[in-house]
Amino acid sequence: MSETVLVGMLSLAGTLLGSLMGIIASSKLTNYRIAQLETKVDKHNSVIERTFKLENHVGIVTEQIKVANHRIDDLEKGA
What we know:
By secondary structure, the protein is mostly helical. It is built from one helix and no strands.
């Protein structure tokens, strides 16, 4: 085999290996970033769910306060 063919084959092997390693490294980084984003989204969704529950609870408590105030007014008028 001539030196030119040997150098070409070694260059091809090096290029393929380098490209493969780059793809693997990029894939690992992408997967890591996606996992971090999923964690952030889960935290955000948790906050949204808690806020929704609190808003419902505030509505219920507000209605209870209105009813209690109305009953107090009725008792004061009756006395």
